[in-house]
């Protein structure tokens, strides 16, 4: 009786339509970034150095010849005489020299070799507005001792309304005072 209800399953041959494995699409951030960078490298204007090779060779010859022309003079002469269809600006030539894309080096350029680089001057504050908050003792930062207060000024919209806030560091208890303006005489009152 039991054998009639149980069906016997036999596999005689492998069905070609059933796949052996299943594919699953998974996103990997590094692969996505690599694809993006590759596609991004194809964007934008390509360097004109290949199109302007004859012009660049002419400029290199003039700069390295006995005439000792500057890049600007050589490029200007070529443009004035219409020697080449494709040219680039003087600034582009100097950029190519800095990047090492042509046979001219900075030492070959008489004026540029003597240029002084001027570092940016760090401008100091014109007037000292008091001690910095960084100079306060470390005991104040730890909030272990009562009696250290922080003050701040708040200015309202269109400079209407001025408030002073005082907050105690340990208990974080605060007070807000309304003052007429930002003058020190009014604040001390």
Cα gyration radius (Å): 38 Å
Spatial order of strands in the largest sheet: 1-2-3
Helix/strand class = alpha+beta
Count the DSSP helices: 8
Question: Can you put this structure into words, describing what you see?
Answer:
The protein has 189 residues and is of the alpha+beta class. Helix content is 33%, strand content 11%. The chain has helices at 2-5, 29-41, 53-64, 71-80, 90-99, 110-113, 138-142, 184-188; strands at 149-155, 162-168, 174-179. Strands 1-2-3 form a 3-stranded antiparallel sheet, with no helix packed on it. One of its GO terms (cellular component) is cytosol. This is IS1470, transposase.
Brief account:
InterPro entries: Transposase-Integrase (IPR051917), Transposase_IS30-like (IPR053392). The protein is an alpha+beta fold and 189 residues long.
What are the defining features of this structure?
transposase activity; alpha+beta; Transposase_IS30-like; three-stranded antiparallel β-sheet; 189 residues; Transposase-Integrase
Fold blueprint:
Elements: H1 2-5, H2 29-41, H3 53-64, H4 71-80, H5 90-99, H6 110-113, H7 138-142, E1 149-155, E2 162-168, E3 174-179, H8 184-188
Antiparallel strand pairs: 1-2, 2-3
Helix pairs in contact: 3-4
């Amino acid at each position: 009786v039991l054998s009639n209800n149980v069906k016997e399953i036999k596999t005689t041959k492998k069905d070609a339509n059933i796949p052996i494995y299943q594919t699953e699409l998974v996103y990997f951030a590094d692969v996505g970034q690599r694809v993006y960078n590759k596609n991004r490298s194809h964007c934008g204007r390509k360097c004109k150095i290949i199109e302007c090779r004859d012009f660049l060779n002419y400029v290199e010859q003039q700069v390295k010849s006995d005439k000792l022309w500057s890049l600007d003079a050589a490029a200007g002469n070529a443009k004035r005489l219409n020697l080449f269809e494709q040219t680039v600006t003087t600034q582009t030539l100097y950029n190519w020299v800095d990047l090492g894309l042509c046979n001219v080096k900075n030492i070959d350029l008489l004026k540029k070799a003597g240029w002084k680089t001027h570092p940016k001057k760090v401008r100091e504050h014109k007037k000292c507005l008091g001690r910095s908050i960084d100079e306060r003792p470390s005991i104040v930062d730890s909030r272990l001792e009562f009696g250290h207060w922080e003050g701040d000024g708040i200015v309202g919209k269109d400079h209407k309304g001025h408030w002073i806030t005082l907050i105690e560091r340990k208990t974080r208890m605060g007070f807000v005072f309304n003052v007429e303006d930002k003058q020190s005489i009014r604040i001390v009152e």
